[in-house]
Specification:
This protein is mainly beta and 108 residues long. The protein is built from one helix and ten strands; from the N terminus they run ββββββαββββ. Strand 9 and strand 10 form a beta hairpin. The mean pLDDT is 93.
Length: 108
């Protein structure tokens, strides 16, 4: 079984995005929902062990920007990913956000 963590950095300010709700979905069903800490991180999603399959991380960035008095046309940012095979692997999938866009990469 694999594990997953994430963090969110607002690249328009260079600061972590604390207090963003992030949902983890499998087959369109929410299996976990957590909020980023003061450093913009979720160290490990619960359930901690993820079986092979297709998943989606959804960060509610629109709500977060609105709470800070900023506008964005994106209500959320999402990452679709696949866990293949049975090897135990850790996935770190961060979000780089700004009011005008967002990006991701596979971290370590």
């Amino acid at each position: 079984m694999s594990t997953l963590s994430t963090h969110i950095l607002d690249i328009s300010t260079g600061k972590p995005a604390a207090g963003v709700t992030v949902r983890l979905l499998r087959e369109e069903q929410t299996i976990a929902s957590q909020t980023t800490d003061g450093n913009g991180r979720i160290g490990e999603f619960t359930p901690a062990a993820l079986a092979p399959g297709r998943y989606r991380l959804v960060a509610e960035t629109g709500e977060w920007f609105a709470a800070g008095g900023r506008e964005t046309i994106f209500p959320h940012a999402q990452i679709d990913f696949v866990i293949a095979g049975t090897a135990e692997v850790h996935f770190h999938l961060p979000f780089l956000i700004a009011p005008g866009g967002w990006s991701t990469y596979r971290g370590s």
